[in-house]
Here is the input.
Amino acid sequence: MNMQMPMPSFDPERLLRSNVYSLEPYAPIVPFEVLSEQLGRQIDDIVKLDANENPYGPSRGVHTALSEIDFLHIYPDPENRALCSALGDYTGIPSENIFAGSGADELLDLTMRLFIDPGDKIIDCPPTFGMYNFDASINAAETISVPRREDFSLDISAIETAVDEHSPKLLFLASPNNPDGSNLPGNDLSRLLELQLIVVVDEAYIEFAGLQHSWIDWVMQNPNLIVLRTFSKWAGLAGLRVGYGVFPSELMPHLWRIKQPYNVNVAATMAALASLQDKERQLDIVARIVRERGRLEGLLDEIRFLHRYPSGANFVLCRVKGRSARELQHTLEGEGILVRHFDKPRLRDHIRISVGLPKHTDALVAALMKLESH
Ligand SMILES: *Cc1c(COP(=O)(O)O)cnc(C)c1O
Here is the structure.
């Protein structure tokens, strides 16, 4: 038989999982190098304030640790013992309740896989992080959206009503929330934990809010609370993909059963360990970013066409008044300054600005002031 001949009557799409058809088409983000080419600017001349990355990157200790890795030809420890133990020290949570993943993104997906049968429901509270809805649709779950109020606080009674009506299995909340930066208040969380569902609190930005705002300790008293975190933002390891979750003891054996054996690679593990070893220095960088956030906020308040929201994270959301936010984002891009615009109902007249280096703040504010005088 000639192996080059295609089988004429075979349609591979016919065998797809049925929910795959209804997924939104893949919309890749433009990689930094490509963008640099498109804008005709060197990477160093681009002010990248669109993805909440840490402009300082990881601490020196991470670079040293990565250059000294010895066993790249050996598979990583499937139980991630060294990392979970170091995370136990960092969080004060027993390491048996800590589970590492390839970014918080993997833990979101694993959490869905743990609970979702096709047709099950989850709740998200938009505007919020898009991955909750994305992972839900991949896992054939239906997302019930309970919008936040005008000031981005949660509508707790609307969530309670939605739980009564739809019996969702999971509720996803980010604290601080992306894109507005508000923290989840303890009295809201207490009320939500009384509901018959699992509450997943995503603390991707908690180091910028201050660890005293974390709900991680509550997991040990609440069998329906999961807290997720990441090294991407505070530790500057977004490119290496490493995050972790704290789960109630009852769930741990089930998580172990569904995990890919080598989900966190050796380089990511070493980098995370080095960040924790160098935690004082890394938290100093966080403090520097928080100070810069304060300076950025003060300067944005001077721009008449922006209304700024308070933020506990490394980004600031602004409503754009009297002009198009989409066009503003585009104009800034033309000057090599990238900010985030969301083409979503509640956010169409907003932009989200990540906190960068002081020189990034200066470039952004200069560009905004130039626009204001027009
Ligand atoms: C950036 C972000 C994450 C992603 O974390 P990774 O560890 O990089 O996958 C998770 N949640 C929120 C709310 C984020 O903004």
